[in-house]
Design brief:
Blueprint (H helix, E strand, L loop, with lengths): L2 H15 L3 H14 L3 E2 L13 E6 L3 E6 L5 H4 L1 E7 L4 E12 L2 E9 L12 E11 L4 E7 L18 H4 L11 E4 L8 H12 L5 E13 L4 E3 L5 E4 L2 H15 L6 E7 L16 H10 L2 H9 L2 E5 L2 E2 L22 E3 L10 H14 L4 E3 L11 H9 L2 E6 L1 E3 L6 E4 L2 H13 L18
Parallel strand pairs: 1-2, 4-13, 4-14, 14-18, 15-19, 16-17
Antiparallel strand pairs: 2-3, 3-13, 5-6, 5-10, 6-9, 7-8, 7-10, 11-12, 12-20, 16-18, 19-20
Helix pairs in contact: 6-11, 7-8, 9-11
């Protein structure tokens, strides 16, 4: 098996296990602990040591992992990579039970900018976090994942919607509640009881008195796969942006401990990042302040650091090539993409992109550029949020992708491993990243 094949096998396994932001963080924590990283708690004192490897989570859905180099972080800065753990999906409502015509359904709410049509006629399961009262009277939380296909959203037959192929729209309130089963008229569906039974199946030792609340979503049970006649593509749910979380994690695990390096994976990017665990919250700045250990040191740390925001880019679709600027249409398997926007929807500038181009040339990895058509609106990432909130130099990059925000997205088999190579090179880069970034040479000295 080649290095690329081995990388993609690990990526596919991660994508299939990380069915929610909570499961993504739990899976990353497993790999960090196996690699010798020490868990920290935000409500306890930290005793950080040079050469130490640490991680901390918030809300169970966001994670920061970092390693401290031999020199004080404030003197040389941090090489930082950022991604997000959430993806557009269907979230189950607090009182979801719907019974119509003998069918038991669940009311759902659309999370983020989901492409809704592909959710029809898929084998769906349920996963997330449940809060419950135990027999001890205390509040407990646990992750659950049904794994089996327990729900489906059937399409309306074309015979009953003759315009389906030309003008069909999806009403998210009426059209997408999934079916779980059939129930006789005298039987009432109780979703919380289903959750209590699932908790006992997955966590046999827990004594569940009552399910109190939950954060649960539907997901497609079809596993991530390498597809295409020549195995050119990775097809999976949640490529945006778990692919970047995984590449950032693997790069950090390849850190050589000379410089200081950090990975942040935030939740809630798809809904604006405005939360305690989102990029627009205080999680990253709080951790950086504790690493710096002083106000003056913090100012020096942020000035001498650099952030790479890794989030998927729009590949040029052969059937819709006119949706791209003619000079900026990234191709799958053409290399990672520098994302640039004059109106600061991306945080890249000539310094940060120039450094990345230099590292890519040293690694022999091709790069591409993306600029949105001037007559179209541009999306954004955690990059500008982090740059504005922390004051750190930032670059926006990503892997070219088709069908972004669909239930099943597509990326190239060469791009993720190439991105991981570049992020590893960045983590181990020995040059200046701060005010003197323009003074470095190609060897980073």
């Amino acid at each position: 098996m080649s290095d690329q094949d081995a990388f993609n096998a690990g990526l596919c396994d991660f994508l299939s296990r990380a069915t929610t932001p909570f499961h993504a963080v739990a899976t990353m924590v497993e790999q960090l602990e196996e690699a010798g990283f020490t868990r920290l708690a935000e409500d306890e004192d930290w005793s950080l040591q040079a050469g130490g490897r640490y991680f901390v989570t918030r809300n169970g859905s966001s994670l920061i992992a970092f390693g401290l180099g031999t020199r004080a972080p404030a003197s040389e800065g941090l090489r930082m990579v950022g991604a997000h753990t959430d993806s557009p999906c269907l979230m189950i409502k607090p009182t979801p039970e719907r019974q119509q015509h003998g069918y038991f359904q669940l009311g759902v709410e659309v999370y983020g900018g989901a492409l809704l049509n592909p959710w029809f006629d898929r084998d769906l399961s349920i996963a997330g976090r449940v809060s419950y009262q135990g027999s001890d009277g205390m509040l407990h939380t646990a992750l659950i994942d049904f794994r089996d296909p327990v729900a489906v959203i059937p399409s309306l037959a074309i015979h009953l919607d003759r315009e389906a192929n030309s003008s069909r729209t999806v009403n998210p309130q009426k059209d997408i509640p999934p079916l779980l089963c059939q129930l006789p008229a005298d039987e009432k569906g109780d979703f919380r009881e289903l959750l209590r039974e699932q908790l006992l199946r997955e966590h046999p030792g827990c004594a569940v008195d009552k399910v109190l609340d939950y954060e649960l979503c539907l997901y497609d049970t079809q596993a991530a796969a390498i597809v295409g006649l020549r195995r050119d593509f990775i097809a999976s749910a949640r490529l945006d942006n778990l692919l970047s979380c995984y590449t950032g994690l693997r790069a950090l695990l390849g850190w050589d401990s000379k410089t200081s390096a950090l990975l942040v994976c935030n939740d809630h990017e798809e809904v604006g990042s405005q939360s305690a665990s989102g990029a627009n919250g205080p999680f990253l700045s709080s951790v950086l302040q504790r690493i710096a250990a002083g106000r003056e040191e913090y100012a020096a740390l942020t000035e001498r650091s650099m952030m790479i925001s890794a989030d998927n880019a729009h590949g040029i679709h052969p059937n819709f090539a006119d949706r791209h600027d003619e000079n900026h249409g990234p191709k799958l398997n053409g290399g990672p993409v520098l994302k640039i926007n004059a109106n600061q929807r991306y945080a890249s500038n000539s310094e940060t992109s120039g450094l990345f181009r230099m590292l890519a040339a040293d690694e022999g990895v091709p790069l591409q550029s993306f600029v949105v058509r001037t007559d179209m609106a541009c999306g954004s990432t955690i990059g500008p949020i982090t740059a504005a909130g922390v004051g750190v130099k930032t670059l926006d990059i990503g892997v070219p992708t088709f069908a972004m925000h669909s239930i099943r997205e597509l990326a190239g088999t060469a791009d993720a491993s190439n991105l991981a190579r570049l992020l590893t090179r960045f983590y181990n880069f020995g040059g200046r990243l701060g005010a003197e970034i323009q003074g470095i040479n190609r060897t980073g000295h």
